[in-house]
């Protein structure tokens, strides 16, 4: 039957060579996929991190001072 275990002598290459070839193939396919994505990609992402406004920057500074004061009180 074709699903029976094969003897080591029946293989054309040693098992470690087969494993290394599979690992090399997986690495090559990963690099190929990355290269294709880099070339074609999904377009620009307009939902990225935007710079803070002056009001938001001031608010964050106030929160930082409040938190530092609370930590100083706690000890």
TrEMBL record:
Task: List the transmembrane segments.
Answer: 17-35
Keyword annotations from UniProtKB, A to Z: Membrane, Transmembrane, Transmembrane helix
- Does the UniProt entry include the keyword Membrane? yes
Protein name (database record): Uncharacterized protein
Tell me what organism the protein belongs to: Ophiobolus disseminans
């Amino acid at each position: 039957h074709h699903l029976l275990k094969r003897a080591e002598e029946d293989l054309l290459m040693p098992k470690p060579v087969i494993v290394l070839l599979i690992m090399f193939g997986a690495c090559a396919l990963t690099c190929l996929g990355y290269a294709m994505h880099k070339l074609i990609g999904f377009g620009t992402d307009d939902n990225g991190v935007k710079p803070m406004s002056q009001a938001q920057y001031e608010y964050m500074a106030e929160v930082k001072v409040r938190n530092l004061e609370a930590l100083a009180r706690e000890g």
